């Protein structure tokens, strides 16, 4: 089991808040302010969790440059009042950047009480996360 320091726990709180704001922004028909706040909180949380240098190295990797450009281009479009298109481009960037450990996330989701078995059934039927299981984690 991985233990987090106090500052990393704060980073997890920032990332969670970012996720809540992103979901809220989508539910409110791509509200620009909510999406922007969610992105900012997520980036701050990620930086607190893994550190500034590892965050910079993660986004600057040659294999991840397409995802980095898509993510930050989408973020810029959200800031320039194109929230729907910006979110879609940003989502593509997120899938490229964080798609390598989708299997880890799905494995965690299987262990969630009550809904975990149902998530596991959907994952098993669809075959999501089978090809690149834990290929390259950012930490």
Number of helices: 7
Q: Order of SSEs, N→C?
A: HHHHHHH
The helix/strand class is mainly alpha
Low-confidence stretches: none
Radius of gyration: 16 Å
| Number of E-type strands | 0
Strand content: under 5%
Distance between the termini: 15 Å
Biggest sheet descriptor: none
What sort of overall outline do the alpha carbons produce when their principal axes are compared? globular
Work out the helicity level.
Answer: over 70%
Query: Taking all residues together, what is the mean pLDDT?
Result: 88
Structural commentary:
With 139 residues, the protein is mostly helical. It is built from seven helices and no strands. It has helices spanning 6-27, 32-50, 52-60, 65-79, 83-98, 102-110, 116-126. It is globular and about 40 Å long. It starts with 5 loop residues before the first helix and ends in a 13-residue tail after the last helix. The model has no long low-confidence stretch (mean pLDDT 88).
Task: Describe the secondary structure blueprint for this structure.
Elements: H1 6-27, H2 32-50, H3 52-60, H4 65-79, H5 83-98, H6 102-110, H7 116-126
Helix pairs in contact: 1-2, 2-3, 4-5, 6-7
Quick overview of this protein structure:
The chain has 139 residues and is mainly α. Helix content is 73%, strand content 0%.
Keyphrases for this structure?
Got1/Sft2-like family-domain-containing protein; 7 helices; mainly alpha; golgi apparatus; membrane; transmembrane; Vesicle_transpt_Got1/SFT2; 0% strand
């Amino acid at each position: 089991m991985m233990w987090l320091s106090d500052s990393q726990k704060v980073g997890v709180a920032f990332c969670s808040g970012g996720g809540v704001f992103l979901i809220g922004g989508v539910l409110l028909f791509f509200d620009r302010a909510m999406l922007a706040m969610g992105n900012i909180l997520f980036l701050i949380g990620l930086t607190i969790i893994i550190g500034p240098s590892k965050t910079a190295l993660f986004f600057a990797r040659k294999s991840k440059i397409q995802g980095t450009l898509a993510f930050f281009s989408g973020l810029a479009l959200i800031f320039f009042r194109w929230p729907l298109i910006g979110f879609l481009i940003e989502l593509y960037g997120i899938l490229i950047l964080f798609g390598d450990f989708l299997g880890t996330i799905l494995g965690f989701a299987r262990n969630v009480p009550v809904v975990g078995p149902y998530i596991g059934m959907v994952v098993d039927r669809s075959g999501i996360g089978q090809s690149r299981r834990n290929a390259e984690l950012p930490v």
